[in-house]
Design brief:
Blueprint (H helix, E strand, L loop, with lengths): L3 E5 L1 H4 L2 H9 E2 L2 E2 L3 E5 L5 H5 L10 H6 L5 H21 L3 H28 L11 H26 L4 E4 L12 H9 L8 E5 L8 H5 L3 H12 L4 E6 L8 H4 L9 E3 H9 L7 H9 L4 E5 L8 E4 L10 E13 L9 H11 L3 E7 L3 E7 L2 H14 L4 E13 L8 H12 L3 E6 L5 E7 L3 H28 L1
Parallel strand pairs: 1-4, 1-7, 4-6, 5-6, 7-9, 8-10
Antiparallel strand pairs: 2-3, 9-10, 11-13, 11-14, 12-13, 14-16, 15-16
Helix pairs in contact: 5-6, 6-7, 10-13, 12-13, 14-15, 16-17
């Protein structure tokens, strides 16, 4: 247990040349004993699948909904151009650029021919395209990570690093293997003490990572590799530090780096879209007793934030964050004392793949705060209206702001938060705190979210700073 397994995200990969001399090398010498799992260059997976934030169609979406061939062919060509542009920005040797470009052309045209053959096959009545869509999504996803890993190896080898590409994408492989077998085969014969493995974030396997984790697959590969190889530590390199709030909202001078927290807090962060790591990946590391460190890739001298399974030494607020949500409220007078309503609502939400962030209920009303599109929620409403024709079903755009910490006991977070809102002129639609004492949630109008985050951050962190300043004055006196 002397090596680490480290992951680099897409945005950081796009600045790979900046990281070479700080992250991979030290004083010009390779820093071995480390295994790197890489994501595709920034924006490439959006072009291959669909844009993560806007939903704009990529190659996959255009192919799946194709009325003609032109849309997805053009989209695939755009991916090729974007990949070449990405590696031309980080490689400076003409020979390396040529190798990377040839790699892109070979993979892109191979994928294009595969999709053409599949379309031709599905033109016969016995074959249905829908049965192959998940495999297509996985095939396309692997193109991005294979490219970025190949480019990273070229860059490092040019700098004198004994780097090795570990391609887990299953390109042109025969047969299916489990994820464990795929990782074992990829790492077979590799000694991290003398070489630096660069591993693709996507791993083709029998389980099908996209089926359960979709765009979170690279962190699942990363965590499984760390657990399976008995890593001393798992490290995620981001382009920022994990901090007490969004610095754009509360100010660069006011935020604090977390420094230390636990997997319980990481789960709350993921639930609110402030994802340090995918919850399933965190579970794997937690069960394997592998601590996770999240660092700023561009601040190499800072140890970042350590995430493990240890409780806090003392109660304290660690993070204030928020998320836009939609409230789905189901009111039915006959709900009192009757079982089944809650299960039916959950079933409708699950059927339409709606993510639940939080929930409250009383005698005749169940309200779910969800993170989804209005289009998906309209389908849920239609199902529930058919099931409960006399129910009043309402939706409302709101925001959910949460105060999070390993231990909030005895801090009166709920009361103090509402007091800070009153002073700032913010109206809270609702508020709640569970007995586990790791988070307190406030429901607000959407326009008030940023103002509420700043108000809460000032209430809990400025007060702490003021108390610390008073203690220092007293000590000097």
């Amino acid at each position: 247990m002397t090596h680490t397994v480290e992951k680099i995200g897409g945005t950081s990969m796009s600045r790979l040349a900046d990281l070479r001399d700080t992250l991979f090398l030290k004083d010009g010498e390779a820093r071995y004993g480390r295994v790197f799992v890489v994501s595709a260059f920034g924006g490439i997976t959006n072009l291959l699948l669909e844009h993560k934030k806007t939903g704009e169609d990529g190659v996959y979406a255009r192919f799946a909904n194709a009325e003609d061939d032109h849309g997805w062919h053009e989209a695939l060509s755009r991916v090729s151009d974007a990949m070449i542009e990405a590696h031309e920005a980080v490689l400076d040797h003409p020979g390396d650029i040529e190798q990377a470009t040839n790699f892109v052309q070979e993979r892109i045209e191979g994928a294009r021919n595969c999709l053409i053959d599949l379309q031709r096959l599905c033109s016969y009545g016995h074959f249905r395209l829908n049965a192959h869509l998940l495999h297509i999504r996985e095939l396309l996803s692997g193109l991005g990570e294979a490219h970025s890993a190949h480019v990273a190896v070229l860059l490092l080898q040019r700098a004198g690093v004994n780097a090795r590409l570990v391609d887990l994408t299953g390109w042109r492989d025969d047969g299916e293997v489990t994820l464990q077998e795929r990782l074992d085969r990829g790492m077979e014969g590799i000694d991290p003490e003398t070489e630096m493995p660069i591993v693709t974030g996507y791993a083709q396997c029998r389980e099908g990572l996209m089926r359960e984790f979709d765009r979170g697959y690279s962190e699942v590969t990363f965590s499984e590799l760390a657990a399976q190889t008995g890593a001393r530590e798992a490290i995620i390199h981001k382009e920022f530090h994990l901090s007490s709030a969004d610095p754009k909202i509360v100010g660069e001078d006011k935020v604090r780096k977390l420094g230390r927290t636990n997997y319980d807090v990481a789960d709350q962060m993921a639930n609110l879209g402030m994802e340090a790591i995918h919850p399933s990946a965190a579970k794997t590391l937690r069960q394997a007793n592998v601590p996770l460190r999240v660092t700023n890739a561009f601040d190499p001298g800072d140890p970042g934030t350590l995430i493990d399974d240890q409780p806090a030494d003392a109660p304290g607020v660690e993070i204030v964050t928020g998320l836009d949500v939609i409230a789905l409220e189901v009111f039915e007078q006959d709900m009192v004392g009757v079982k089944g309503y809650d299960a039916s609502i959950l079933d409708a939400l699950t059927r339409h793949n709606v993510r639940i962030v939080s929930k409250v209920s009383n005698a005749n009303t169940v309200t779910h705060y969800v993170d989804t599109s209005l289009k998906s929620l309209r389908r849920v409403e239609a199902d529930l209206a058919e099931r409960y024709p006399h129910a009043e079903i309402k939706t409302r755009k709101l925001s959910l702001v949460s105060v999070v910490g390993r231990d909030l006991s005895g801090l009166s977070v709920l009361q103090r938060g509402l007091e800070s809102f009153a002073q700032a002129g913010i109206y809270s639609v609702g508020a709640s705190q569970g007995p586990r004492n790791v988070d307190t949630q406030y429901i607000l109008e959407r326009d008030d979210m940023a103002k509420a985050i700043k108000s809460l951050h000032d209430a809990f962190f400025d007060e702490e700073k003021a108390a610390g300043d008073k203690a220092k004055v007293a000590l000097v006196a």
